[in-house]
Design goal:
Blueprint: H1 8-41, H2 47-70, H3 82-100, H4 104-107, H5 112-116, H6 124-130, H7 132-147, H8 155-190, H9 200-217, E1 221-228, H10 231-238, H11 240-257, E2 263-268, E3 271-277, H12 280-295, E4 298-299, E5 304-305, E6 308-314, H13 321-337, E7 343-345, E8 348-350, H14 352-355
Parallel strand pairs: 6-7
Antiparallel strand pairs: 1-3, 1-6, 2-3, 4-5, 7-8
Helix pairs in contact: 1-2, 2-3, 3-7, 6-8, 7-8, 10-11, 11-12
Length: 359
């Protein structure tokens, strides 16, 4: 993740999410340590080995938390360090298997769990590559166990267990990788390539679902149609590359400015649609906040701020999506005719003087 592509706030938000996910690893390692402690208490796992494993279980997640908290993870291609965290978990599993003895057949199933964390995040080739760790790690653990005099099952049974693991793990990796492919293809079909926002098809699907839920449950929501002011002049004066930069900058600004739960999509060209939960008052404050933020942000490609106009309509019970968007679109044209850089409500007018100190 580069700062040239993302704002400081977006980087910070992503880092907080990664940190929370990495902190969850402490729970996973803690639960595993509890199971091993119970096994140790009934004589199925050596006490000395438990101390070694506990140190590794503590240091491993602490290392990744420290990398993310310090920002050092941003140097990697995958700032979430997903592959590295899965590899570390598998290596720790191999360490436990070395001392597991008669429990080895059960403990080796723990190899499957880290692979699940790679679903939606890692490709099939990467997940299959991670399977090489248990492929080599389990035989090494068995050899080390025998060398230490900690024999488990018969070698014939150990071989069958390893073969079964090598059947299950690649299949698990393949399924998890397919989930990644599905997520990627779905994202490509739902997202606008230039802005990274939802596209028209995804917005219509969301609105269709929302209208089905809102009418019987009396859930209020609004739709706003936004359009840049004098966008054609920007393309004519500065070129289409500058126009694209205006759209990308606005998309980043909108994601940071709109409320959590509001959905924005690129409707086409320089036009956007925002679905806002709540009544007129809540929606208009959210749109005004976005409009004012846009008017106050200088776009480097054009050397000034680019304003926008907005039309806002409240969904009426039983109203179709087409009718709702049409009313918001008419309000947008009213805002354009009234002087631009303003929000027009379907049936009401809203400008900066009326909003006052909107949040």
């Amino acid at each position: 993740m580069s700062q040239a592509t993302y704002t400081t706030e977006q980087i910070a938000r992503a880092q907080r999410l990664r940190l929370r996910r990495s902190l969850l690893a402490f729970l996973f390692y803690g639960a595993s340590a509890t199971v091993l402690a119970v096994a140790c208490g009934i004589g199925l796992f050596p006490l000395g080995a438990l101390y070694i494993v506990l140190v590794m279980f503590l240091c491993t997640p602490a290392l990744f938390v420290a990398l993310i908290a310090s920002g050092a993870n941003l140097r990697w291609r995958d700032p979430s360090l997903t592959e590295a965290q899965i590899a570390a978990a598998m290596l720790n599993c191999t360490l436990v298997l070395t001392f597991a003895g008669p429990l080895r057949g059960i403990v080796m199933l723990a190899y499957i769990l880290p692979l699940q964390f790679g679903a939606f995040a890692l490709t099939t080739p990467v997940l299959l590559r991670l399977c090489l760790i248990p492929a080599a790690g389990l035989p090494l653990a068995i050899a080390a166990s025998h060398w230490l005099g900690m024999r488990g099952a018969a070698l014939e049974l150990e071989l069958v267990q390893w073969m079964a693991l090598m059947l299950v793990l690649p299949f698990t990796a393949y399924v998890a990788g397919r989930l990644f492919d599905y997520n990627r293809y779905k994202r490509l079909s739902d997202r606008d390539e230039l802005s990274g926002l939802y596209n028209r098809r995804a917005a219509l699907a969301y609105l269709d679902q929302l209208t089905r839920l809102s009418t019987p449950n009396q859930v209020a929501f609004c739709v706003a149609v936004l359009d840049f002011d004098h966008f054609k002049q920007i393309n004519d004066q500065f070129g289409h590359a500058a126009g694209d930069e205006v759209i990308r900058s606005f998309a980043l600004l909108a994601r940071d400015t709109l409320r959590k739960g509001d959905v924005i999509a690129r409707w086409g060209g320089e036009e956007f649609v925002v679905v806002l939960h709540g009544d007129y008052e809540q929606a208009q404050h959210s749109i005004e906040r976005l409009r004012e933020a846009c008017a106050g942000q200088v776009v480097e490609a054009v050397g000034r701020a680019v304003t926008l106009s907005a039309g806002l309509a409240l969904h009426q019970p039983g109203e179709s999506i087409a009718s709702l968007i049409e009313r918001a679109d008419r309000a947008l044209y009213a805002a354009k005719h009234a002087g631009r850089n303003r929000t027009e409500l379907a049936g009401h007018t809203l400008d900066r003087r009326q909003v006052g100190t909107a949040a």
